[in-house]
What we know:
Order of helices and strands: EEEHEHEHHHHHHHHEEHHH
Number of strands: 7
Radius of gyration: 25 Å
Structural class: alpha/beta
Number of domains: 3
Amino acid sequence: xxxxxxxxxxxxxxxxxxxxxxxxxxxxxxxxxxxxxxxxxxxxxxxxxxxxxxxxxxxxxxxxxxxxxxxxxxxxxxxxxxxxxxxxxxxxxxxxxxxxxxxxxxxxxxxxxxxxxxxxxxxxxxxxxxxxxxxxxxxxxxxxxxxxxxxxxxxxxxxxxxxxxxxxxxxxxxxxxxxxxxxxxxxxxxxxxxxxxxxxxxxxxxxxxxxxxxxxxxxxxxxxxxxxxxxxxxxxxxxxxxxxxxxxxxxxxxxxxxxxxxxxxxxxxxxxxxxxxxxxxxxxxxxxxxxxxxxxxxxxxxxxxxxxxxxxxxxxxxxxxxxxxxxxxxxxxxxxx
Length: 337
């Protein structure tokens, strides 16, 4: 059998599409294969380069196939699309992945270890509860407004206002029962989120790199543990600028003819990490009046020139570069004077 040097796999839940080429780039494998047959089939092949899109279950399969001796690399979906020749289907996707993984300068997604995924599972479950609480609060505020009871935005505002609102004389008895039930659900969600917060704080205390990250302003246990679990080996990134670009915190370019045009941030990469860093930057911005260091002076000047929101994003991008340096070098955080 012709030696297969490179394989692209289009992942799915039950059926996978494989596309393989030899050392000359000639197609020697086009096969649709069931989930149970994938590992045995690849186990009988000589070690080769395997590419997959970084999607659901990709990290699991990357670890499994690496144990068979294959060189497995994960590719962000937006880097695969330019190599797709025809309409989108499983066969064309697998061929595009096979082509993309052979490019020498393509940036690949680091494969997460199972311990990293366990930490991220905690974060995803907590994120789900926070989203559920936000939806509950918004729904409750909307229902209260139907009775002329207006509550300002914020979980804490509603939590404090509900007991008094339940005593409103004009509120029908049936509606009062529903709002009491919603208040109970809000308390239950608060308790579950608090449980996850304690779990995240315990993970941060047990992780030396997370402790170093929390020395930087605007970084708490949630951001620190999420960064450590998601990034893994920070040296997979060439520098802090590349790390900030991976998070989607750098401007999108549309330059031509030597003219440099910068637009909004790209918003590529991990939405969760980018959101945490921007929230952390907002917290730092609220303390700027008490800070006289170089970063504080730079952000205040930027805020005066470009406005609050752009200054927040710029500070988040700067924080991303600092946090990359802390992870890559293992050094403690030192504030600029």
